[in-house]
Structures
1.
Amino acid sequence: MTEPARVLCVFGTASDVGKSWVTAGLCRIYAQDGVSVAPYKAQNLSNNAGVTPDGLEMGRAQIVQAQACGLVPHVDMNPLLLKPTAGHGAQVVALGRVLQDDDMEAMFGSSLQARRALVFGALDRLRARYELIVAEGAGSCAEVNLRARDLVNFPVAHHADGRVVVVADIDKGGVFAQCVGTLACMPPEDRARVSGFIINRFRGEPSLFAEGVRWLEKETGRPVLGVVPWSHSIHVELEDELSPDARVDGPPPDDDSRFQVAVLRVPHLSNMSDFDALERHGVGVHFLSRPRDLSAYDLVVLPGSKNTLSDLSWLHRLGWNRVLARHAAGGGAILGICGGFQMLGRTVADPHGIEGQPGTSVGLGLLAVDTVFGPTKVTRPARGRLGTTRLEGYEIHVGQTTVEGDPLLWLDKDGGERPDGARQGAVMGTYLHGLFDGVGAVAALLSPIRPDLDWPELPPHAHWRETQLDALADHLRTHLGEGLRGM
């Protein structure tokens, strides 16, 4: 009988220390070295999701990590996905499908047994198929108050007899306390699994930290496996939220030689990877939360949202509805993606109370469309065209939208085509995530708005993602060096 795969656990001293980034890089390194490797994260808390080729939903970070391994994403790589909703709740996606009320009760009842059976079952299936599993943790791996309910960190390591490396973020400050304190908070059986530390996001001359490395190794009894510098040139999709380098509510752009986009930073922003291809094409991407004059921007985007009705209410409450109406009346271009598309319409009805109390909300009224939420969630890969330009992406949404007038895109369906989205003057909407990723898609969508600009002919965005993963692997190889042998 073949032995189950070895498991390497990448845990952290806190949230946002770079676990997903390091995990993706390690996955690519092992794949380059000919190891049959797969990623895994038992439970993800994120609104940044994607769709597998078979139409199932999982965390975006594990999709990227699967790509780093050269694999087709599979929901066993992220068996539980929690998508925060308005208030304190979350939509639960188990093995790619949204749980209904009865299943929720069985899964989140009085004990952890059902959840652990789900996540450990997925891990065991992966271990039967591959030689190595790189398992990402969540948050801090030493949260004392959560230890008894933890599904993602040391219970996974103990179940799979895994080795643990702990990532710490020196850019946040207090890295010595992060490492020493994390170990001190662990029970002995957890501490015994820790092989060493990775000091991430270092700025400056690494030799100046040599004394710090010696101190950490002496105080913790664990090696520092590497000091990894911050890289501004490597772009790998994050697990959730915006890049640490992203500015919100910065000054208006004053360079009209570039196409300038404003993305409204709604409270439940999702699928931020939709905008990666824009920046790659030289587009200035700015995130705005506070209402302002929009005349400096060539396009305003209402992005995807996990809580369309809550974010729609936020737009009305802050006065964005009036700002957007003025912008549209002056001929300004506006694009809504998924939840943003729904918000641009006349009404959004929620008769089943999917996102709160049943009822109908008044939309922004900039497109002649109406949306009704239903109990069935749409998750599917999608291909289509804008004019003669081919597009490829995916859909994740609750709700069906009735359109009066012209669609924006045409998507493939059963050998034919189906309409998607809407267009009314310079106001546009679509359900297609990833619509900018296809070859020529940025030019096809944006050149009618700024015909004076020339657009570069770039390789497919998927190819660019591969180059970024290779660059990340090279970066980690350089700065982990012999530390890779200690993992």
2.
Amino acid sequence: MTEQHMPRVSIGLPVYNGEQYLAEEIDSLLAQTFSDFELIISDNASTDRTEEICRRYAEKDSRITYFRSTVNRGAAINFNRVFELAHGEYFKWAAHDDRCKPEFLEKCVAVLDRDPSVVLCFTGIEFIDGNGLKLKEDRYPVDLSTVTRRDLFRFYATGGHIPNEFFGLIRTKILRESPLVGGYVGSDFVMLGLLALNGRFHQVPEVLFQHREHPQRSTLVSSDSEAFTQWYDSSKSGRFAMPFWRRIFENTKSVIVAPLQPREKLVCLWDICRSAYWNRAGLWENIVQIIRRNSRHH
């Protein structure tokens, strides 16, 4: 990348101790048929060979920039950092253990170029194992040809699937107006819900994204809500962020700032109330956990 040319696409790759699969993901990104992109890697103070791998690739390809933190401040800050450093019209997050097939960017860029109403484009998805072997295809549970903004927002407000569309291609301008990744469990659903209120989602039918299932995945290593919260934000060590309550609060903020008519906002707020009722067990569990923690500390 030169001063005269800004890439059309920015790819942000946050990583911590990703030596096992990192090279595979970088190779899959560098093999894209759409080549006008920058790859921003932010290393969250890895203690394995991640730094060595990243520096080797950055020396070989000028599209790659590598940043390394001196301390691990948690995944949320690292995810947001790669976006804040982005220059492209479109942005994609990349996980160090996933893979993209060569046409991923080309197909998604074509959709965003063609239809300004689309804010996020993703492709068909398949799950692979630690050896890269196919496990199954993932079917997106929403019919995007008929869904309304309200329906899509409600879908993310309730949560309930692995949100791999988070790793799709997003309009940078719209994403800059979102809260990005918060330091709490489920903040990816909140961000996707806000994007849904700002435009349409589109899925390219071809299976061009591979989500890897393996024992070291963050959702498996972080076995409870408190540990998972610390994975998002290391400053919250020993604290509990009440994630169910936080998601209700953030979803409400999303509706308030969204470009909706007053009646649409009221309907979406009603959906949040219904979601809170459906998740009342989780909300109550958050309160009980806080009470128990305070009892232990006194």
3.
Amino acid sequence: MLAGSLVFYAYNQWWTISIILAYCFMGWSIGLLLARVRRRRAVLMLGLGFNIGVLAFWKYAPFAVTAVAASIGVQLPPALPIESWVVPLGISFFSLSGISYMVDVYNGSFKPEPNFWRYSLFIAFFPHLVAGPILRAREFLVRLRPGELPTRPIAEWEGTFLIARGYFKKVVLADTIAETIDPFFANVANPTTDGIWSLPYLYLYSFQIYFDFSGYTDIARGLGLWFGFRWPDNFNWPYFATSIKEFWRRWHMTLSRFLRDYLYIPLGGNRKGPFRTAINLMITMLLGGIWHGAGWSFTLWGLLHGVYLLVNHCWQALPLQAGLKRLHGGAAYAYTAFSVVVTFHAVCFAWCFFRLTDFDDALACVRKLAVFDPDKALAGGAADFKLWLLLAAYAIATAAAVVISRGAPVSSVGQQLRSLPMLRGFYWGIAFGMLVLALTLAPGSQNSPFIYFRF
């Protein structure tokens, strides 16, 4: 499993195998040292410094050099590989897995792994390697130890269904949306897009990044089940969140819990008064934005979500909010719908700075939210009726599945295969039918990588 994972990782960037092996060796060594030396804090700082330092070098060196040179008015020599700089795939994800392991060993919540190969497989196992979910040692490494290693797949139908659903989300929904919206975002500051309303494109990008990333997570979790491992989900209907706080409990949940448990809570969380709570929130979301990439737009994206969370905290403290929570019946449904709409639009606005890493392009997109020509507002890809029909059909099919299953998770539905064998063929037909649909409906001209591969 480890050999196959390393071949998978090194397939397109063979030289990066040395980086991931260095991460594996350092994390494993630090874990053992933490159990044997007295100056444990210094050892932990060494391990964290390595993980964060190497990550910072590969992800942020070109941006830092360019920013410093621009601030002091120095022309960079052409020999510097700024334009050709390549960030190793998945370095952010396996860095965080290593950090969580070292901190858990330091805190005594996990015993250090004595076997280098098992630890390396925990870091480098191919399904979750390049885009998560971000796994903790107790969720995966413990299952690799003697007596715990699976000998057969588990939940075969669930794994197959997740892979099929993830493949459908990616190649049919996300890639079709990308084919439609990429020309607009590539020319958002160009006069050729003047008068076009940017809001529908932000809607579509919101759906694209969700289908793209949750699709990858589905595939990773499905492959994990095929190998006998059950991993946590990464998404739980995030665009139905009624607040930004709830959104981050539903979106990229393994990153959210990492930021909460290894950054926000150690900073003091909400235990040291309102002012420190605000500072801790802003630091956490700022670093969450920077983690996604080098650039001022990612920084602003993180700061925006920090401000959103502060507003959310202030709103929760108002007496009016307590009164609204006591609503019932139609008034309660109306308030919930209003909260979902406001939260979704706040998230869409922030996506503008996530999608457009050039600051001028992002500002042009923001301007076109309010300044557009009514006669050509919906021109271009946003007016593609077939795309909206495809999204509506997927929404209706999903809603029907939720109603039929009474809101039960996929894992519960899969368990019915044993209790209701008459449904076995029907369930397997759904899984393979989604794969056939994905192959049939995938746009032939689009072959884009997963969005989160670059993080």
4.
Amino acid sequence: MPRLRPWIPVVVWAAVIFFFSTDVFSSEHTQGIVVGVLRVLLPSARNETLLILHDFLRKCGHFANYFIFGLLLFRAIRASARGWQFRWAWIAILIAALYAASDEFHQSFVPSRGPSPWDVLLDTVGAAAAQLALWWIIRRGNSGPSDAAQPHIS
């Protein structure tokens, strides 16, 4: 069971992504809510602008969902090890890309949705960006000055 524990958040987040791929979160259903909020925030914006912003926010959602998915995948693949390894990141990106492709395939069966290879690419970029962020954060954490070089404050 301890080996499976890091995969629980991955499975939960995959289910969240799957739910976001249903009819409930189709563009037709989110447009009224998102454009309504945007209309309050940007009262002088033209309707075409609000629709473009709606589409942009939906694409940001793709990126963000798979960024989080990429973080969770890396954590699960790394398990109890420390640091950052290219192979862990590569496996996380590969799994995220395969899941993104399967998610778009799922959307081909949802009447109000449709598959898009561009969304798979965007999702994969989100997961890859997560790996780059982890690399940078872990590298920075490991390359700081040693405790001996720090001034002593009493």
